[in-house]
Amino acid sequence: MDTVLHLDDFRPLPDAPALPGLRFRRCRGEVDYPAMLAVLNACRRADQISGDDTIARVTRRYPPQSTAIVLAEINGTVIGLCRWQWVCLRDDTQRYVHPNWRGDGIRRSLLHYCEAMLRAMATLHQHAQLYPAQSRRVLAFLPAIQDSEVTLAELLGHAGHRPVRSFDEMVHPTLDALPAARVPPGLEVRQVQADQYHAIVCAVLCIPLKSNFKHL
Description:
There is one protein chain. The protein is an alpha+beta fold. The chain has a single domain, classed as Aminopeptidase (3-Layer(aba) Sandwich). The chain is built from five helices and five strands, in the order E-H-H-E-E-E-H-E-H-H. A five-stranded mixed sheet has the order 1-2-3-4-5, sandwiched between helices.
């Protein structure tokens, strides 16, 4: 699975299941967004994830010029999609397959494709000498899932992945009447400014990776 797989219009992936009408292709941009949105929201409901995606969010997350997006179709109907990206010290992928088509090996094939593309990307980075020779490079494949995504957790586990970091999401109805809480001395809570975004993103993505993968 270390070979770069180039998809033209339609082409089967090497380990794709033999399902009638199954094809894979690149995203064609805005014309595909409604079908992609339907798959994303079906997945959210099946996995008990609150809220719905919107066309605006799909546009931001899946830019039309990106070549890092692959769609799965059954007889011309989009039933799955995946995307990979390289961020800071972080490889990341997203794979979604409509609940009606889970369990047939489509999501596994998309996962293997994303892994292959990220391995190829890491190899290109090494050959291009993007990092100092003396640096300890951290190349981590980090899919992010929620507790309710049980079948995806099983798929990742069978592929050899294991949990390394957990986050808790806590929601309060409003910012009014927040309960009093003791905080460490010197800790300040205030509104984020635009010129602080970059530092915050680097802290969130890079520092946890260095602590979790310091043994590499």
